[in-house]
Structures
1.
Amino acid sequence: VQLQASGGGLVQPGGSLRLSCAASHSISSFSVMGWYRQAPGNQRELVAEMASGGSTNYADSVKGRFTISRDNAKNTVYLQMNVLKPEDTAVYYCNAVRNVFGSRYVYWGQGTLVTVSS
């Protein structure tokens, strides 16, 4: 399984970006897909995740500003980020979890850097 993240870049505070995560396999095969981020000196943290049934979970710090969505036909998960703040600056990683016969498999994409700065 390969996850290809894209869409990062430099944006001013208050701006928007949309991250994409393209999977090499059908995303319907994953029990959960999500986005994590890691800022310099910090641990990797959950930003947003979506279960196969469509339920979502967001970090408190991004609620109301970020939206996770998916396009099953394109095997792609998105993270729409609005009203970006300097503290959103981090490397963002795509994540997918598959449960098979009681075993849990976790996949990570390469990171995409988001820099929020004026």
Note: The chain has a mean pLDDT of 95.
2.
Amino acid sequence: QVQLVESGGGLVQPGGSLRLSCAASGLTFSLYKMRWYRQAPGREREFVADITSYGTTNYADSVKGRFTISRDDAKNTVYLQMNSLKPEDTAVYSCNTLHVSLSYWGKGTLATVSS
């Protein structure tokens, strides 16, 4: 079955950077659009970024210019490079894909931005 496993979260100071990874298995990774979402404490889950199988990217306005999504199809992995982090970026970040009309989620990785 499809599995998504995120890693790379941690504690970082404002202005710092983190690189999140999401390793996928159980699907022909190169064919699928991959997405990153986040959920901050007490808030709804929100879209962060996505990347198509062709490499076309899309970002939420709140992260545009600071975050970069990329993929390595040879490693079945999607990345989220997060720069110029702000305290309001603190959240659990999860990756997502749609496969055979089903939506799959990883368990997420926590990124905390605090001094």
Note: The radius of gyration is 13 Å.
